[in-house]
Amino acid sequence: MTSVDQLNVEKIVKKSGTSFYWGMKFLPEIRKRAMFSVYAFCRVVDDIADNSGTIKSKKIKLNDWKKKIDSVYQKKKINESILKELKTSIETYNLEKRDFISIIDGMLMDVKKKIQFPSKTEFELYCQRVAVAVGYLSIRIFGLTGHEGKKYAYSLGMAFQLTNIVRDFKEDLQIGRCYIPHSKLKKYQIRKNISSLDKTKKIQYVLQDILKDADMFFKRADEISKNLDKKKIVASELMKQFYKKIHKKMFKKNINIKKKVKLNFFDKTLILISFILR
Fold first, then answer.
1. What pTM was estimated for this model as a whole?
2. Do 16 and 126 fall into the same domain?
3. For residue 138, what are the β-bridge partners?
4. pLDDT per position in the chain (278 positions), as tens?
5. Domain total for the chain?
6. For 245, how many CA atoms within 13 A lie in the half-sphere containing its CB?
7. 6 part of a folded domain
8. Residues 149 and 198 in one domain
9. What CATH number did the domain enclosing 170 receive?
């Protein structure tokens, strides 16, 4: 019987309308429940960083989540549905506390200052925190605990995040953010100017550079996946197909920056059918 806590967590995942939901649906019930708890956690802390509020209030809320995660690992009494479901996931799959903290630290990077033209080091750290750490939690739930599994999670996390950065480029500019590393702009002699960046013709070269990096990570994940248990990576491989399709709609094309690339019903249906028949 599905608990109230499970239903509350699943509601958060469904409401987000994420492609990850479809990947999770292919998991056995117990693993799906664990993934839902992790995704719901990610959704809640991400919303804190992105929604309205003062920098101070957002910092307080995110640091409160660090304390909440700490309380789960210290086996203290908890009341929230997400925490109860996370407790079950952590105990069942031996999820590492540092990955949850890393995700929160990534959100804090967004809150403490609007990230604009980061250094290569800051950029990689941000991607590792907000994307790769999620991958590390996910592969444990999938049943992969070896070094190859971590390499696979790293490659997929980077591929997904780089694709997101290009897809969300215009949206991020509108809220004063730009995750494109300064080195990428410098390569094409583009000035660091948030207000005019989307009107600069050379920005297409920069976006394609990032998509080329994403393509490299996708190919690396493809290669690593050949040596992994196919039954354990069904969900991540489906998610990869969704992201590859988004990537394909932008890679080696003149991107319409004003219009966010999305997958329509036909795209999703075709991916699902192809995946099932593979």
1. 0.92
2. no
3. none
4. 468 888 888 888 777 666 677 777 778 889 999 999 999 999 999 999 988 789 999 999 999 999 999 999 998 888 889 999 999 999 999 999 999 999 999 999 999 888 999 999 999 999 999 999 999 999 999 999 889 999 999 999 999 999 999 999 999 999 899 999 999 999 999 999 998 999 999 999 999 999 999 999 999 999 999 999 999 999 899 999 999 999 999 999 999 998 999 988 888 888 888 887 77
5. 2
6. 19
7. yes
8. yes
9. 1.10.600.10
* C-alpha 231: how far from chain center: 22
Instruction: Say whether both 60 and 140 belong to one domain.
Output: no
**One-letter amino acid of 258:** K
Nearest to 261 by CA among 209, 207, 185, 224: 207
Tell me which of 65, 98, 131 is where a domain ends.
Answer: 98
Q: Note down the domain range covering 182.
A: 114-278
The phi-psi region of residue 190 (left if phi > 0; otherwise alpha if psi is between -120 and 50; otherwise beta) is beta
User: Do residue 68 and residue 159 come from a single domain?
Assistant: no
